Amino acid sequence: MTGTEHATDDAGILPAMGSYGYADLGRLMSLMTGDEKHGPAATSTLDALWVLYDRVLNVDPCDPGAGDRDRFLLSKGHGPAAFYAVLAAKGFIDATLLPGFGGFGSPLGYHPDRVLLPGVEISSGSLGHGLPLAAGTALGLRARGLARPRVFTLVGDNRLRRGGQAGEPACHCDLQRLIHLWLARGHSGQVRAGALVGADRGRP
Fold it and tell me: pTM of this prediction?
């Protein structure tokens, strides 16, 4: 099945884990309801998350803790519905969990929890801590001699302002395997995106 095909047209049947495509993401997100869904904030990340998990990240839902995997750290964890939808589409979590979003006993909290969900690297939601954690993760991998894994982090505009202090030391540490992605919403409501690969920018 390609990334653009529908897994099923029957609204009453959820297909097998990992058998979804991009066209199914809206339906998967619609299974999660409530004010704490933060729909606009979550939807703004949907395309970026899909491209990462569909085309970029070296991750395996059958072995989410593999040592040589890429690490993705969602700093923009306030409103993780899109993240959960993509994890379900790619087989990390069962889509039948989605309707329980935010409910008592559900592993799908209003902020993602790395202890409860496979494929989640950090428990995020607090503003500004994604980039510092990503820089530390990249440094830790390098100290362990793991040259293959890359570290990605996705932040929003508020989180970029709060966590931007980590950018300079990350550059000075020459973290070639750190990729910093950001999303910002302009006055018109249009979402802008950018990326910075953690090379030695700013090094004297």
Answer: 0.81
